[in-house]
Write a structure and sequence with these properties.
This protein is of the alpha+beta class. It has seven helices and nine strands, in the order ααααβααββββββββα. Helix 4 packs across helix 6. Keywords: Membrane, Transmembrane, Transmembrane helix.
Length: about 280
């Protein structure tokens, strides 16, 4: 019984279960035999997942791994990396929301410069939050069915929390210029790249408007980390650094372009550290 078989069973069963749940919530009468068969299918898939997970765990234990490492390796093998990263992003987003409420920031070392980058997107995020709240209220008024109303209310409220959490994560997780000249680039809970001081050759203010995704790594080794479809700082590296994109894809970058609300302050900090360190 392979990992591929277990994953295929999950991807086949989950959509069917979601469709069935939607029918039940909408009040569609479903024969009892169909419900029993559907729940039996879900139970069989869960049992299959448990068997495959146990076999992976046992194999790692026989190879000499301790219990914790064996369990971690089994989960990593069975659960796709994109799913694991999405779950981790969501947990970090909710944690960031708590830090935001407490007016704290995430891991800013003593003597380091915290670099804000939320300026171009703040208005958009609050507009999106307002639209989400209005939609939640409107659906609560329009939908007459109590069951559907309850489900959509939970979904909409959680969506509002995630939108607020995404903005909070960007606020409490700024870029960081270390006292030693190192650089840490972040975008909320979705992206985190550490660049050692020795790998940074030069930095300059350089406003650009790249096309494409939030995190874009080109074939030429240029990494664009845009906010509001713009970058304001370019950092040239002495050697490539490995970066991991939000869903787990990896690559190497030789040039970093990112947004900072005050790009001159960032460039001045990076330049000052290198000037002080030079003989």
């Amino acid at each position: 019984m392979s990992v591929r078989t277990a994953r295929a069973a999950v991807w086949a069963a989950l959509p069917a279960e979601a469709a069935l749940l939607g029918c039940v919530v909408a009040g569609v009468r479903i024969p009892g035999a169909v419900l029993v068969a559907a729940e039996a299918l879900v139970a069989a898939v869960l049992a299959l997942e448990a068997v495959v997970l146990w076999r992976l765990y046992a194999a790692r234990r026989r190879a000499g791994a301790d219990r914790r490492d064996a369990a971690r390796d089994a989960l990593r093998t069975l659960v796709p990396v994109a799913v694991r990263r999405l779950l981790a992003h969501e947990v970090r987003t909710l944690h960031s929301l708590g830090l935001w409420v407490l007016r704290r920031r995430h891991r800013i070392p003593e003597g380091a410069l915290a670099v804000a980058y939320t300026g171009p997107q703040t208005a958009i995020m609050y507009a999106l939050l307002f639209v989400s709240v209005v939609e939640t209220v409107a659906l609560a008024v329009v939908i007459p069915w109590p069951a559907v109303h309850a489900v959509l209310l939970v979904v909409d409220v959680y969506g509002v929390v995630l939108v607020l959490g995404l903005h909070a994560a960007c606020v409490v997780r700024p870029h960081v210029v270390g006292a030693d000249g190192s650089l840490r680039l972040r975008y909320g809970a979705l992206f985190d790249l550490r660049v050692p001081a020795a790998a940074i050759a030069a930095a300059r203010v350089d406003r650009r408007y790249p096309d494409g995704r939030l995190v874009r790594l080109g074939a030429d080794g240029v990494l664009d980390l845009a906010v509001g479809s713009q970058t304001t700082v370019t950092v040239e590296l002495t050697e490539p650094v490995e970066c991991v994109r939000p869903l787990g894809a990896r690559g190497f970058a030789r040039t970093l372009r990112f947004h900072a609300d005050d790009p001159r302050e960032v460039v001045a900090a990076l330049t000052r550290v290198r000037t002080d360190a030079s003989p």
